[in-house]
Specification:
alpha+beta; Double Stranded RNA Binding Domain; two-stranded antiparallel ribbon; 4 helices; 5 strands; 16% strand
Length: 141
């Protein structure tokens, strides 16, 4: 069971793990043992996630989330299968924790009068520099 908060947990039955051969370090072992982990979690159809959390999670523009709402995490950082398995679960947990708190609504603000004036002054100075450059014509013949 992957515990996200005291009230939210994902049961192991909803997590699908596939072990494949890793491309990372490991010497001869890398050719024999499937140490890399591909963790799949169907977030779209998971009853463990609250609706608001699921919506925010699937709205993320993340390459690990498919169009079908399945989160795919590949872990092959370590040489052992157990450590890669823990790494994949931890990365899934971090992905879900990132969207756990709803984002603060943006409050529209206006630039201050001083900021507007500083911007216009710098634009005038820049335009003057460009005007000076354009007025000089050099004849190299």
């Amino acid at each position: 069971m992957l515990r996200i908060t005291p009230s939210i947990a994902i049961p192991d039955e909803e997590l699908e793990e596939r072990f494949v051969r890793s491309s990372g370090p490991g010497g001869q072992n890398v050719n024999k043992v499937a140490t890399a982990v591909e963790l799949r979690f169907d977030a779209l159809n998971s009853p463990a996630l609250p609706e608001a959390l699921r919506t925010r999670l699937l709205a993320r523009r993340d390459s690990r989330i498919t169009a079908d709402g399945v989160i795919i995490i590949q872990a092959q950082r370590f040489r052992s299968q157990d450590r890669n398995r823990e790494d994949a679960r931890e990365r899934l947990l971090n992905l879900i924790l990132a969207v756990l708190k709803p984002p603060k609504p943006r409050i529209a603000t206006k630039p201050s009068r001083g900021a507007q004036e500083r911007r216009l002054i710098s634009k005038r100075e820049r335009a003057g520099v460009k005007r000076q450059r354009a007025s000089r014509e050099v004849d190299y013949d």
